Automatic annotation (TrEMBL), chains A, B:
Top-level taxon of origin: Bacteria
One GO BP annotation of this record: lipid homeostasis
Cofactor: FAD
Keyword vocabulary terms for this entry: FAD, Fatty acid metabolism, Flavoprotein, Lipid metabolism, Oxidoreductase, Peroxisome
EC number: 1.3.3.6
Residues annotated as domain Acyl-CoA oxidase C-terminal: 500-623
Name of the protein: acyl-CoA oxidase
Species the sequence originates in: Pseudonocardia endophytica
Claim: Lipid metabolism is one of the keywords in the record: yes
Amino acid sequence: MTPAVSALRTVLDGRWAHVREDTREQMGQHALSADPDFTTEQYRAWTLEALKVLTASGRPNTGFDPSVGGEGDVGGVVTSFAMLAYGDLSLLVKAGVQWGLFGGAVQVLGTSRHHETYLRKIIDGELLGCFAMTETGHGSDVQHLHTTATYDPSSQEFVIDTPHPGARKDYIGNAARDGRMAVVFAQLMTRGEKHGVHAFLVPLRDGNGQPMPGVEITDDGRKAGLNGVDNGRLAFDSVRVPRENLLNHFADVAEDGTYSSSIENETARFFTMLGTLVRGRISVAGGAGAAAQKALTLAIRYGEQRRQFADPTTGEEIAVLDYLAHQQKLLPALATSYALQFTQDDLVARMHEIQAPGKPPAGAREQRMLEQSAAGIKAIATWHATHTIQTCREACGGAGYLSENQLPALKADTDVFTTFEGDNTVLLQLLAKELLSDYGRTIKVGNPLKIAPLLGRQLASIGAERTGLASALRRLPGLSLDLTDRRRRQALLETRRDDTLATAIRNLAPALRRSNDEFTVFNSSQDLLLTAARAHVDALVEESFRQAIERTTDQDVATLLRRVYDLHVLSVIDRERAWYLETGRLTATESRRIRPLVNELCAELRPHARLLVDAFGIPEPWLACPMLDGAAPLPATQETAEVAAAG
Amino acid sequence: MTPAVSALRTVLDGRWAHVREDTREQMGQHALSADPDFTTEQYRAWTLEALKVLTASGRPNTGFDPSVGGEGDVGGVVTSFAMLAYGDLSLLVKAGVQWGLFGGAVQVLGTSRHHETYLRKIIDGELLGCFAMTETGHGSDVQHLHTTATYDPSSQEFVIDTPHPGARKDYIGNAARDGRMAVVFAQLMTRGEKHGVHAFLVPLRDGNGQPMPGVEITDDGRKAGLNGVDNGRLAFDSVRVPRENLLNHFADVAEDGTYSSSIENETARFFTMLGTLVRGRISVAGGAGAAAQKALTLAIRYGEQRRQFADPTTGEEIAVLDYLAHQQKLLPALATSYALQFTQDDLVARMHEIQAPGKPPAGAREQRMLEQSAAGIKAIATWHATHTIQTCREACGGAGYLSENQLPALKADTDVFTTFEGDNTVLLQLLAKELLSDYGRTIKVGNPLKIAPLLGRQLASIGAERTGLASALRRLPGLSLDLTDRRRRQALLETRRDDTLATAIRNLAPALRRSNDEFTVFNSSQDLLLTAARAHVDALVEESFRQAIERTTDQDVATLLRRVYDLHVLSVIDRERAWYLETGRLTATESRRIRPLVNELCAELRPHARLLVDAFGIPEPWLACPMLDGAAPLPATQETAEVAAAG
């Protein structure tokens, strides 16, 4: 590793640098790649073996409470987990299901009786489990899922039922083959009353792996990717579990069926419960970020060595990364990957401060802000991964289409990241509505969703559609016409964040005054809401990147990072320049200057492209592929000894 | 089929409606889907069997010359071929390799001696073959590939050699398993002189399937998709073939080694030869179009039946296609799919007029224009497919990730369409340079690539970066401010086509005056060239769609199509509105009006969405999937009887 790579990596590694280094060291010794020609059954078997190696490494301890022998390093485990995306994504997801979702739910939704009985077995992989929330008919709308858990005081049991096929639990990882128990989310009914969604521990299979009575398990079969994970469907027919199997951190049912909860309002309780599960969403964002980094590393290395068409002057063939169009495909995406890594680290640190053992209890506002950021960053990071990996595949041409060169698995495996742990469009809409609510709270008026008319009047004076603002902005102290001025660009992102929200409110206000049809009103403003959410996240990402550079003491690294930052921010402004022009934030002359600036930055960063991807520190054995060395494909192996002891 | 579907389908089916109907009828009786859990070997075996069923149907005759028993229906075969994308894309590609590329090359590059000896066997599937053009080190730059064919007058043979590993033929369909012969592109050397790339018939395997002496065949292995096609690599070590194996339509070598050609200039000869192969590129565009149509059909049907979140007013759950954001994902893409279908049909008809037997020989200009259009439309149609299928997968959520619901195969199989038959970026750049050349020819000045400085001066007065043009445009007779005016929108697309080309020339001109470094000059204008090419295709597509509506006699159909046309054209203007604002073609007020217009059109077309996809006429058995009927997954079958007799 050159000193430049080392210095840059130190900055990029951030607060959990030691975890990253440990993980790299453990991983770096192993080739971790499944045979692309595995059948589904072979790949599932391979992944289960890999999970055992992971268990043996002791890493799953990291995130759990010290009370059950864990290290309580919440930030560390999420950081380390995401790095599995450098290796095999089925292993990452299976590990995430087992320890993040299943184990995590037992920890945060359960109480000591569950912790003592199950957590050690979960950590040690003796009890493999599922997180059974999503239903065939209810993916995004979890609050209204249809599975029921009806309390029977005569036997002191809950009776779990799937009332119709649309209420089957679906896409459940670990269900089709390996899981013995599930955390099942169901509508709790007791004494004839419905109390909303709660979580229950439900045994799925007996010691011989046979389904328990009343449990019907079917297989989701082959998927676009992640075929090492055994996703399946669960249906329950009067399945009885003891009263104690309710994960009762937030609510409980007494022996006689009396319901009690520390949170009175059903909706508030539901969202509080869900909020504790924020770690899953953050982990997905991290995994997506790492997968995009790997794709960029492969494509940039290939782009440096691949030559095509001769220079008419010199007769020498030109490296494809020297073509402007190729740089435009890869380098802005690389800059955004840097931005997202710093953003992700900030997010992980915020979560750590709230969730790690021994931290003071988080305020509702802090928790809510964390959930908002997690929703928005998950959406943006996973779409970034989908687009970037697609671009990298195309940038590697035919070689990028061969499984031996790893891009096909990266693309196929991460494709569902935009869907699971919350559909991206739904998440951004959720974020937008939260932003409206926050605004409502700021100005201290009643039910936030109902105050849009009021907000509309208040905000009328700062509405977005003013023209001539570009010149006004330039008259602000310290801001110049020149788009190379970082303060100007920062202000552009912040303005967009504020004004797109104001525009959404201004559009909702008169419509809600005119109509009681809330669906139609919100639906007709849906694109404005999504725009506002996106702009909010863009500003958040800019802030994280900017602050990371401010913290950087190595001046050479800081200088390089500033150019990467410039490319990222200019790319965002470039993408949204129609909005800036429409709202008068940029003049036509300024707008036309953006693309040439992006091109100049691409040319400037081109010589540093290899350094920038090497700094991600992806273990070299995990990057090995024939297109990068002309060697024969690595022989695939099913031996578990080859599986990384990582996590 | 309702009368509305029938009437719309008639218009959409166009000139080759009878071929489409025949193909549907043959196909409609069969379920044509490979088991998603096939190993590579199983899938290849399945595809070969499917190919035999296709052979037995007699369809491959359609495109070949009557002299060998074919029907000479060039347009018909391309139309029918593309419809295989509704079924299994591996079969489509394997058929394309066998009859389109291999058989097609023998027909257009060979002469009667090759036709008589080989074409019947090729049509009947007795002789399976490869099209060995691409090399590991030379994908896009075919003119400079490194395989050599050196004439040896002593034995009257050509000696084929692979001088280094980078000159291996790579990604060659039919090579790894089934092909017995290949059309090999190699640099022809005779009497110590090099004459550029020519095509040779080279036997690959003997009757027992063993590689011929000197032929090394390796397997490309698993790919992202298309795993029913046996792609492989070919290397030649002093492989000798008779002199007569040169496909000698454009050039020949006499017994004594004398070279002769009807086209003196080596580069001109190369591009003439390549030009005859334009059918492959057009077929890929057609296949991509059909795949996107199938994805949209699946996603729109799902979006109509999938319900999520209750309407707060009525309490009823809302179909996801009723959400504006969902409509924005699918309906503009559907409108563009309509536009591309009409464009494709025009392209096929132009090709038919040039290539079908009995047609008068095409002029150089006609041929060149066809190649330009094919390059541009291939790029735009395949990117459209990649983006649209991705969007459809996401729009179907978790269900879209399951193989049983067909979207994963559509995505993975078509992913390489943006790469093969010409990398899209390279194709658009080629188109742009051709457009520059055409401009040069129009004003009758020497070498087109060298006249940019002159063009620059000539074009200075019509350069793109004028402001205030929006108001000027509105003063043109018949044009109004209102973006609902179709003439205005058509003018906007045409203006963009003309002005982006002028801008590219204006930027190249002074740079070429200043510098002799042609690479640097063109490279720094690469994005302008790509923009001009894209704008050219956008205008072409608009024209095809507009003319198709003008031809439509059914007034109800015409009315509906006009709204689809409106949505397509407005989406293009929306995508490019930053450019229109920067160049003063749209005012900020007008630009802000576009998105609401798009939204209104989405709402207006929403009730017709099902009709619009049903009109594609995809055979119902090929659309069957559990997410659309809640039924159990179709049992996968390996039986060849299930394979469609289609083509």
